[in-house]
Amino acid sequence: MKDFDLSAYLGVFLDEVDEQLQILDSQILELEKDPKRIDTIQNIFRAAHTLKGSSASMGFEQMKEFTHHLESIFELIRSSRLNVTSELINVIFESIDFIKELKQAIVNGTLETIDITAHVNKLSAFKNSEGQKEKTIHAEPHVVSNPKHPLDEFQKNIIQSAMLIGHHALEITIRIVESAIMKNVRALLIHNNLKEAGEIVATYPSVEVMESDENFDDELCFVLVTTQTKQEVMHIINQISDIRSVSINDLTGVEHEEKEMLETTVVSQTSQPQTGTSKAKVNPTVRVDVDKLEHLMNLVGELVIDQTRLVDVRSRLTGLQSRSEEDIDILDEVTNHLSRVITELQEGMMKTRMLPIEQLFNRFPRMVRDTAQKANKDINFIMQGKETELDRTLIEEISDPIIHLLRNSIDHGVESPEERKALGKPKKGRIELRAAHEENHIVISISDDGRGIDPQKVKESAIRKQLITEEDANKMAERDLIYLIFKSGFSTAEKVTDVSGRGVGMDIVRSHIEKLNGIIDIDTAVGAGTTFTIKLPLTLAIIRSLLVKFGSKTFAIPLVNVLEIIRLNKEEIQMVKDKEVGLVRGRVLPLVRMKERLGIQEEGPGREKKREFVIVVGIADKRIGLIADKTLGNQEIVIKSLGSYIGSPPYITGATIMGDGSVALILDVSRVVREEGTQDDENLDNNRKKELEDEGQFVTFKLDKEEYGIDIGRAKDIVSVPTIVKVVNSPKDLLGLINLRGTMLPVIDLRERFNLPQKAQTKSSRIIVVEEAHQDIGILVDEVTEVLKTGSNTIEKPPAHNQYNQSKFIKGISKLGNRVVILLEFDEVLSTINTEQLKEHLNETVTI
Amino acid sequence: MTIAAVNKTTQFVVFSVNHQHYSLSIEEVVEILRVPMITGIPGINEMIEGVINLRGSIIPVISIHRRFQLPTQTKHKRNRIVIVQGKVENIGIMVDEVKMVTKFDLDHVEPPPGLKIEEEIFTGFAKLDGQVIGILNLEKVLYDQLG
């Protein structure tokens, strides 16, 4: 029976051990901060006791023995017989680590081989130093006969502490029917049931005796600490058959005196908020095997695929103009409803996989403390957003990168207390770990108020380690320099410490995060601190993606990585150093023709397109544009692996199934971006930026056959021609007034200005609204052609000796292929019009 | 697998590729499909045609033609994909036509004639109605040229 119990409850036991160890970790940190706080000590004591109890009930002797020793230390602390020193805390932490080892040993089945004496001795050293006699505190009670058992010191202590948090102690005496078979089994059942209701402080006879079925008479006695009432406990016991009688005696009254006495001493503390683990408000939960959930999740994934297929079929059916429109309506309804249900189901499933990040965060305070101590730093560690939920697989995956970043902050970021003092900063460094939801992402940030990352130091180090040439480094922007820390083999630490500085960190952190479809960003200021921000999708299994075509092949691009979709004209795509770049709002965007990069061969000649779809994708602060042939829209996709046979082909992370049942591939954005990154985009960027600085943008328009351009800074608006109201007694070239969003705008006729013959307005006629000091002015042109970007090197000065008086209107002439664009000096054009006068004139006219 | 493994009770799936007959033990075959839409994957081993969706699973499909460097055949209605058990996952093999499922008489199975290539790819040759049918060594076919 014991063997059976073991295998069935081992999982539950291990979970419980984990839980209790975590409580210990966090509460002991509290204890270190405030050694006098009673409820912290109570929590610690309870956790240690639970550990002891459960390991004893599972029969793990070493663990029981060791936790017992640990517990007695806590007992000493609680009774103020032992002072909390950092030395003691260290030993306690070591002990907790040792329990973790023991736990691992249980999993591996090697528990028997572990020797606990060394660790026990360390603990005992403290006990003995305080001159305490130990081991008498909690001897296993072998007394079987006495029904009203005297409680020993230790048990009384538990009861007292339980009463402080509102529990009461019950002495339960149970008689089992004499003729009942397997009495010991029943006894154990009762024992287990009671354990659910509260904490069993004492058992007579002991559990061991119950199990062995020797010296076992019909009477059982338990001392139970619980929040439940007598009736409830009675009910629990009566669920088991063959019980002759039950009597329950409330011990709380018996110990009343002691309770009051204790209360007077702790009254000030109990008014503090309870941070503890009192079982008061816990939502009922069910522990589920992760595999089972995983399976359900897969099924939901299948459903999602089927649903998209249904939608696809429906749309095709509607296209066929089927006669049975009624049927299609029904199909419509069904698919719509199905979509809704599936979406909800999917969300629900996703939520079952969600865990609060607390699970992960709770490990950190301890780690930060240890690391800080080793590095001789004084650190105030703050965590926020513990309740933020994310996919459990993500929690596992994200742990290492966060640990690494935290260590970096402690080791490299925060200065030593002396240094901080000299800098006028508070002695205690501050490290903050935050988690929050942002739309469909989770954002985790780690910030410190340390020395920040110095781009110059990064640069020097990178050059010294030959990660980059000096020449290249000099061209890089400061921001880009900082990102060099993500290169493999990089570390600025002067010497390698135990904590960090081996130069194998940040690149792994980055690749880890990119593997999760995440993004990492750095924000740093020298002397003020550094913030690392990690942005991750909420879940890994199902993601939103943008479907595009590269050639005839459909690819899915995770929407997390997509920043925008733009269309670029052929002229806006230029060659720099044999690479294509696009100009987007003054920024240079490296372009990748994915079709060629992927090596997709197409039958038939590729058409030269006038405009290209460019999908701007980003990882960290790198942006590149992917040229696609077509965009198909957004879709939820279920990520599937390509399997080991195919392995991991370049630029592809996996596959997904489309609505029509075909397979589409998922693009590995990080790989493409990374590749572009290694090709010295930074320099390219800088070179291009210089060229851009000399570049002007012009709105070009046509008058007759000539093309003119005016500085884009001057053109406020371009509107089609509304009715123009003639103004009496106006200069000849003033065409009249138009109503532009409620204000009157004078319009001049540029043909008249340029002495060109009059021509009737056409559909393509436009009015360009030009900004002028006193009054905006509209100019009527035949056609607006485009916004032209042109470098100053392509602009020629107009010939100096020119017989035409217009020449002063001309700023320059831009030659673009076989086009000639005359760039106008607009102030000159308008100079003959006295705009101020015009305004007055206008006001007069309007008031008349 | 040696010839000894080809006992009398085993059945074989016989198919043709480029007018040649080949066979695989039925134990290795999971199912036989009509050819669905195959999605090619750029940048992988040439002999892998691509992947298909088999009831929600992604299955790689290899082309026997390309594996044996035979001229590619035009598509045909009778083309099939034979799904076999690979080391880790199921893998599809594109064949021109599945002929039959039959038992081979052990007496009519001969060892490979000694040519090196043949020794590697075939475990033996069976004679059936005057035709010679190569029994494929699945592991070699699937994994030898994978690189």
TrEMBL record, chain A:
| One Pfam family matching this protein | Hpt
Name the enzyme's class. transferase
Matching entries from SUPFAM superfamilies are given as: ATPase domain of HSP90 chaperone/DNA topoisomerase II/histidine kinase, CheW-like, CheY-binding domain of CheA, Histidine-containing phosphotransfer domain, HPT domain, Homodimeric domain of signal transducing histidine kinase
Domain of life here? Bacteria
**What's in the keyword line of the UniProt record?**
ATP-binding, Chemotaxis, Kinase, Nucleotide-binding, Phosphoprotein, Transferase, Two-component regulatory system
EC number in record: 2.7.13.3
Q: Which reaction does it catalyse?
A: ATP + protein L-histidine = ADP + protein N-phospho-L-histidine
Q: Which CDD domains match?
A: CheA_reg (cd00731), HATPase_CheA-like (cd16916), HPT (cd00088)
Any keyword Isomerase? Answer: no
Q: Which Gene3D superfamilies match?
A: CheA-289, Domain 4, Histidine kinase CheA-like, homodimeric domain, Histidine kinase CheA-like, P2 response regulator-binding domain, Histidine kinase-like ATPase, C-terminal domain, HPT domain, SH3 Domains
Query: Do you know which InterPro entries this protein is assigned to?
Result: Bact_Chemotaxis_CheA, CheA-like_dim, CheA-like_homodim_sf, CheA-like_P2_sf, CheA_P2-bd, CheW-like_dom_sf, CheW-lke_dom, CheY-binding_CheA
Q: Where is the Histidine kinase domain?
A: 292-540
Ranges for domain CheW-like come to 542-678, 695-835
Domain HPt, first and last residues per copy: 2-106
Residues with PTM Phosphohistidine: 49
Name of this chain's protein: Chemotaxis protein CheA
Q: Which organism is it from?
A: Robertmurraya mangrovi
Automatic annotation (TrEMBL), chain B:
Superkingdom of the source species: Bacteria
Q: Per its UniProt record, what SUPFAM superfamilies does this chain match?
A: CheW-like
Q: Name one Pfam family in it.
A: CheW
Where is each CheW-like domain found? 9-147
User: Which PANTHER family did the record assign?
Assistant: CHEMOTAXIS PROTEIN CHEW (PTHR22617:SF23), CHEMOTAXIS SENSOR HISTIDINE KINASE-RELATED (PTHR22617)
Q: What is this protein called?
A: Chemotaxis protein CheW
Organism equals Robertmurraya mangrovi
Q: What is the lineage of its organism?
A: Bacteria, Bacillati, Bacillota, Bacilli, Bacillales
